[in-house]
Amino acid sequence: MKTAAKRAHRLDRTASPRAIATLLLACAGANASAADFLDQRRVEPIQGDVAAGAAKAVVCVACHGPNGNAIVPTFPKLAGQRAEYLHSRLSEYKHADAKLPYYAASPMPVQAQALSEADMHNLAAYFAAQKPMPSPTAANTPPGETRGERLYREGDSARGIPPCQGCHGANAEGGPVAAGDQYLVYPALRGQHAPYLSARLSNYRAGWPYRASGDYIMAGVARTLDDESIQAVAAWLAALPPQEQH
Questions:
Q1: For residue 12, what pLDDT band results from cuts at 50, 70 and 90?
Q2: Dmax over Cα atoms in the chain, in whole Å?
Q3: Mean of the pLDDT values across residues 177-205?
Q4: Prior bond to 176 cis, omega within 30?
Q5: Radius of gyration of the chain measured on its C-alpha atoms
């Protein structure tokens, strides 16, 4: 397993993203125990009490804004995301090692420790039911097709960059659910804050976090992106008007 992990870090940039993702998933046990690792390839639909979630979410607005529409652009918007994605993120934080650098820099592991499984279901249901608001950066993006849009829709085969829409949907509204339950945990990206998206992609490129199957896939993708590509995709997504999940 250690050999597989070393090979994953030595992968040539020209290797296919699917091959990278497969190898990274194969060495997941080198980074997380079976009990802690979140296999997002098998996802059950999340049901929760919206009213109970609203009561529990009072503390969340300090960072994530009223109804999950974060005002500070380094914090993600939660409003309108799929409940399955939100529950998965809370579970990841709840079982994370708070001493690791990625998690130590976040208040979320401590917050999530106090949540029961019912709490996480209810919070996920509440934020999923909220109306997402447009990003204030939307007006700053020039009209017409941008490099960020091309990368999202088409990728760049010459650099081994896959199209983002393959997992996050043609309109960045979240994964295509008809393709399989695992796509329920692929978040909607349209209208999300550009600084938050840029930071997430940069963290994936640097190798953080590694606790869920989706993290390994995203790490392989992020390694194909330079800073300019990350900024371009993030800016284009932030400029899209958000759309509520149905």
A1: very low
A2: 50
A3: 91
A4: no
A5: 17
Examine the pLDDT at 24 and tell me if it is beyond 90. no
**CATH H superfamily, domain 2-37+148-239:** Cytochrome c-like domain (1.10.760.10)
Encoded tokens for 165: 């829409």
Looking at residues 161-175, what average pLDDT do you find?
Answer: 94
In angstroms, the CA 86 to CA 125 distance is 8
Contacts of 103 (CB under 8 A, 6+ apart): 93, 96, 97, 109, 209
Query: Distance (Å, rounded) from C-alpha 182 to C-alpha 212?
Result: 12
Q: What gap in Å lies between CA 246 and CA 70, rounded to an integer? A: 21
Determine the CATH number of domain 50-128: 1.10.760.10
Question: How many angstroms separate the CA atoms of 194 and 205, rounded?
Answer: 16
Dihedral sign from CA coordinates of 150, 155, 158, 159:
positive
Query: How far is Cα 17 from Cα 22, in angstroms, rounded to an integer?
Result: 9
Q: What confidence score (pLDDT) does residue 98 get?
A: 82
Estimate the crossing angle of helix 2-9 against helix 17-26, to 10 degrees. Answer: 150
Q: Which of 126, 119, 156 is CA-nearest to residue 232? A: 156
Averaged over 123-148, what is the pLDDT? 80
- Which pLDDT band, with edges at 50, 70 and 90, does 40 fall under? confident
The H or E element that residue 47 is part of is: none
Q: Residue 38, SS3?
A: strand
Domain residue extents for the chain: 2-37+148-239, 50-128
Separation between Cα atoms, residue 210 and residue 38, nearest integer Å: 10
The pLDDT mean for the chain works out to 84
Nearest to 171 by CA among 83, 241, 219: 241
